[in-house]
Amino acid sequence: MRRALSIFLATAFILGTPAAQAEETKLEEFGTDLERFPYPWKVERMELKVGAESASMAYMDVQPDQPNGQAVVLLHGKNFCGATWEDTARTLLGAGYRVLIPDQLGFCKSSKPASAQYSFAMMADATHRLMEKVGLEKAIILGHSTGGMLGLRFALMYPGAVQRLVLVNPLGLVDRMEEGVPYVPLDKLLAAEKAKGYAEMRQYQLDTYYHGEWKPAYDRWVAMLAGQYATPDNDAAELAQAKTAEMILTQPVSHEFGRLAVPVTLMIGMKDTTVFGKGQAPAEVRAKLKPIPAIAPQAAAAMPSARIVELPDFGHSPQVEAPEVFGAKLLDVLSAPAP
After folding, report:
1. 3-state SS class at 216
2. Over 276-328, what HEC string results?
3. Has residue 16 got a pLDDT over 50?
């Protein structure tokens, strides 16, 4: 078993000015499957096969003290994990909801099969199997970012298992390749992932998720991802992340919005600047790409039953940025009639 190691990095973070503030950050190697990163509740596993490889899907299944008879499945984003939902889950539990929180295959505490051809359909199938395993016939599906794109695919594949679909700043509202974002081969995506460290991850999240305003609470989640990448494991985590980046670009769901048979609520942090693929797009294409808040209305209009709930003061991850505000708004959404 690997011993936990600590690496001290002097990193400079540019906080919207030419001056850089150096900080000393303790980076712990948390393991390929985040073996040494604590989760808020007991982590269980569902064994399954991915092609010829054996794999396991990690999840938390948490029961409320006073059940209201409903359940919520929480789907994390690409740079997030099941643990990142802790505040939202506690809010839901307090309101009586059972909460099922998987780590998708290729992410966090779940297996990262090297031979897997990652797809949203594969992840939707695994999530549905997990619901069957724990005895959930139907649930509210709540997806954030890439998890929102997964939620859309899940709802298209398993509409009978979806009570309602809630999407928080989801990817997949448009087809970025159709807009001109070019394909990048997997080897180049892997090289880009391998080049990321704590400083790069933090700067990206500062600029894109949190509109230039950083809070100490966010550091835990950057350290989680960076500590996974820092683990010497033949780049297993980086390869999985490269494959999922390829998946997001090449497996659009936006052309199928008209087939959605479940009510959809889009909760949109209006300060979000996320534009998936902009970093690999040529300048003339990049100039035309719009962030999530700007494309959400057109996406909602293409869905048979959808509405938008705006969160004016927040960015890509309102559940992390302002958990109390987001939690209260979420409970309002779930208590209101479906759109």
Report:
1. helix
2. CCHHHCCHHHHCCCCCHHHHHHHHHHHCCCEEEEEECCCCCCHHHHCHHHHHH
3. no
Query: Do the beta carbons of residue 228 and residue 237 sit within 8 Å?
Result: yes
φ, ψ of residue 236 in degrees (nearest 5): -65, -45
Residue 131: closest CA among 90, 163, 109, 106: 163
**CATH topology assigned to domain 6-335:** Rossmann fold (3.40.50)
Helix (H, G, I), strand (E, B) or coil at 89: helix
* Measured distance CA(101)–CA(76) in Å, rounded: 8
Residues 6+ apart with CB under 8 A from 327: 87, 88, 91, 92, 319
**Spatial separation of the C-alpha atoms in residues 263 and 256, rounded to whole Å:** 15
Phi, psi dihedral angles at 271 (to 5 degrees)? -95, 10
- CA–CA dist 141, 163 (Å, integer): 7
Q: Could you give the strand order of the β-sheet that contains 139-144, starting from the edge strand earlier in sequence?
A: 44-50, 53-62, 98-102, 71-75, 139-144, 162-168, 264-269, 306-311
Residue 338's pLDDT is: 87
| Boundaries of every domain in the chain | 6-335
Largest alpha-carbon pair distance within the chain?
55
Q: Kindly give the pairing relationship between strand 53-62 and strand 44-50.
A: antiparallel
Instruction: Locate all alpha helices (DSSP H) within 113-257, ordered by sequence.
Output: 120-134, 146-157, 186-194, 198-208, 219-229, 236-250
- Does residue 293 contact residue 301 with C-beta atoms inside 8 Å? no
Q: State the helix-helix crossing angle for 219-229 and 236-250, rounded to 10 degrees.
A: 110
pLDDT digits (tens, 9 = 90+) for 242-258: 999 999 999 999 999 99
Mean pLDDT confidence for 264-281 = 97
Q: Which letter does DSSP use for residue 161 in this model?
A: G
Q: Is it the case that residue 105 has pLDDT exceeding 70?
A: yes
Whether residue 145 contacts residue 80, with contact meaning beta carbons closer than 8 Å, is answered with: yes
- pLDDT at position 226: 96
* Average pLDDT over all residues of the chain: 92
- Position of tokens 């609520």? 265
